[in-house]
From TrEMBL, chain A:
Coiled coil: none annotated. Residues 483-717 form the ABC transporter domain. This is ATP-binding cassette, subfamily B. It is a multi-pass membrane protein. Pfam families: ABC_membrane, ABC_tran. GO terms for cellular component: plasma membrane. Residues 166-445 form the ABC transmembrane type-1 domain. It comes from Paenibacillus catalpae. The chain crosses the membrane at residues 163-185, 205-231, 281-300, 306-325, 386-407, 419-440. It is found in: Cell membrane. GO terms for molecular function: ABC-type oligopeptide transporter activity; ATP binding; ATP hydrolysis activity.
TrEMBL record, chain B:
It comes from the Bacteria. InterPro entries: DUF1854. The lineage of its organism: Bacteria, Bacillati, Bacillota, Bacilli, Bacillales. Residues 34-163 form the DUF1854 domain. This is DUF1854 domain-containing protein. Pfam families: DUF1854.
Amino acid sequence: MSIMDQLPEQLRKQMTGELLLSVKTDLLPDGRFGEQWLAVTDRDIRIWQKDGSPAMKFAVSELKAARAVGAVGGGTLLVDTLDCPVVIARYTAAMTPVFNFAAKLISALAKSEELPVLSERDIPKQCPTCGNPLHEGTNVCQLCMNSGKAAARMLRYAKPYKGQLAVAACMLILTTLVELVPPYLTKVIIDDVLQARNLGSTLLFLILGLGVTTLMLSAMQTVRGYIGVWVGSKLMGDLRKDIYGSLMRLSISFFDRRQTSQFIGRVNSDSEAMRQFMTDGVVFVCGESLRIVAIFVIMLSLDWKLSLFALLPVPVMIAVSMTIWPKIGRRWYQQWRSIFRLNTLVGDSLQGIRVVKAFGREREEMTRYANANVEVVRNNIRMEGLWQFMFPAFNFIAGIGTLLIWFNGGNKVLHEDMQLGVLMALVAYLGMLFGPLQWVSQMINWASNAMAAAHRVFEIMDTPSEVPEANRPVPLGTIQGMVRFDKVTYGYEKHHPVLKEIDLQVKQGEMIGLVGHSGAGKSTFINLICRFYDTDEGDIYIDGISIRQISQSDLRKQIGVVLQETFLFDGSIADNIAYSKPDASPEEIMRAAKIANAHEFIVRLPDGYDTRVGERGHKLSGGEKQRVAIARAIIHDPRILILDEATASVDTETEQQIQEAISRLIQGRTTFAIAHRLSTLRNADRLVVLDHGKIVEVGTHEELLGKEKGFYRKLVDAQKELSQIKGVEG
Amino acid sequence: MSGRYDIRLFKPEEIYFSRGKGGVLQGVVDGKPYEELVIFRTFPFRYASEYISVRTTGGEELGIIRDIAELSAECAAELDKELQFRYFLPKVHRVASVKFKSDLWIWELETHLGETRLTMRNLHEHLQFPGGNRIVLTDMHGKRCEITDWHILDAHSRRQLEDVL
Ligand SMILES: Nc1ncnc2c1ncn2[C@@H]1O[C@H](COP(=O)(O)OP(=O)(O)O)[C@@H](O)[C@H]1O
Ligand SMILES: [Mg+2]
């Protein structure tokens, strides 16, 4: 019995047979948001409205089958009655797995087949507290989890540098205190020396004192500044490393949906914003608050009544800060987004620069850029403009306090209630007090930028990998190379399966050729073996162990791939061949290249194995790159070998060379090969023919050719025709 | 015959649609009745009710309807309804609130299909601007809603949107 949502008691009582499934839909039959109940027993299928009034009922005997028809953003559960197809429920995309299961269950009942079991993966997990759907692989609800305030998390990066930061803090306290000395000395000079016409050596001493404090200040500021830079750079290094590490950890599907060049900017600029806040920002806040307190103490001790005037503007400033704080954060994000769009655009058109040039679309690309650029400029003005308004506003508010003190203090001095020096000191301290207060707005700016950056960074760090690592991976050792697909269904988007119910058992050392039209799902098939993606239903086993149970590094050690689009990294050919085994000796590298039929052409290059390839290096031809890639796979020495159209982009002669190389490579390894030219798969032990994500034929080349109306035969005939035409033309 | 490599555009009189007993779309094409038909928008973003592909359940394309409005009112209504089922994209009438809470953007929306809530991890990956003042919102779980023209929403909604657009 598999119950998704607990059926209300009153509905339960109406059921007679054994309850097999009960579930709540999230759409009404007319497509509006709403709920309905669906229950399946071994005798009938029933639908109720939310209030419990019955809506539909079918006896199992009336039905032929059931289907879950996926659409965009949702789907429909249909039953085929003896009479006609009937819509029984509608649901949004989040519920797709459950209703796929429901369809299977009802079909099995109708055809009196063995009933399917609801696997844990079919149940969309929901957060127990708020009911929001949970992501696969996590049990932490994004909504309920208060992911530790971003600021606190950010500060954790400063932890390893406690010592240095403590020194910096001491320096800060000292400088702050020392900074307060000069105005006091000035007061003494005015009141006790100048006004008192004291002609002794006091003036010299006082000025000497002033000089010494200034010197100390400069020295301490230098040291503090240096520590700040040091800690800041280290911090930023740590952050960048972590962000990059998180990116590497994420699954292929994360990158499928995103333009990758955007991350270059993000890694750098976001970590810079965070650093600025942590070093400059935090030091700044601590130092300035300390200074404000100290100044108040001194001012109050000088003349407490007058000092209170200085406090008047403070509440106004706080109020203004509080109101603009959220606004600034959002504007930062807006600005960031427009720059993000601009960068994406540049990344796109530069990656496709050949296409742009070939079609002569430079002008249009420039227009596109110009439009995005205008957006950035507009946001920039909005952001900086706000900031330009904030600064003078704070200045003005602060100025009012100074005016009040001048007025009242001036009067007092005139009436000889107060000494001139005290007034001068008060005004000087007040200037020092409002300095930091004005910079509060700068601080708001920094902090909100840093917060926005931190959110983006932590978002990457918190994104769970869609192919989670097993908790307790089964140790693999050297594998035999048996591969089994057990009812595997997979779609890049869940509601649109690309592979459907694939069952296949592959013996060790066997070579399997995958054939089918383009888009049939061949590449998807091998992506699943590499575990670039996880199956939606069913499982894949290697030597009888589910690949979900194998640690990913173990798995990839056993698998070697050669793809149609060969990517070579920036570095020498030797580096590229030895990519999976950096300590390979030159002999090993050459041996691998020899097997791959690459040795000859490499030696003839002026720089031999040290020829620099990759983005910025020597451009190898398609076939040459391919052979380097094969050498890379050979040195990896995998038990399972995957070749995805490894020879698609080369001429027949080169193909023959590569083919030779491959035939040496596959000795004793389980091999999955996809080839465009079917003739290259003739040596395969078995051919698996895929069509629209389903296996339609399995057998040897001869067996399949023997089938009169076979799928494979049709493919072969079509290719023969084509090559004959080519022969005539050529 | 224009052959199988040409797109066939239906003339309004060649097709007829209705709803079957069980609530599925059925129809008659070239005089041949079909118990169940599937329709696709070929340009879901640009043309909501034009260039509609009509297919059998087996996936064979029978032809393309240039514009639903050319059909009889009855057929057009049936197709409209079916499109709504197949392309679940509620239209937003009102944006009740857009909040940023514990690292997530939470949108409370009122749509023509009822109230709903979308959650997003960020805005830059979940908002699409297909052109004009149109916005397509996609949430973390793939649920989508559409704002056809954010300029014509009420003042409250616009204020909510202003900060995030
Ligand atoms: N990364 C992807 N995201 C979404 N859909 C994909 C992706 N890769 C392939 N597809 C789709 O999956 C289907 C099968 O593709 P594929 O396995 O590459 O076919 P082929 O047999 O030509 O190798 C195609 O319809 C393709 O559009
Ligand atoms: Mg492919």
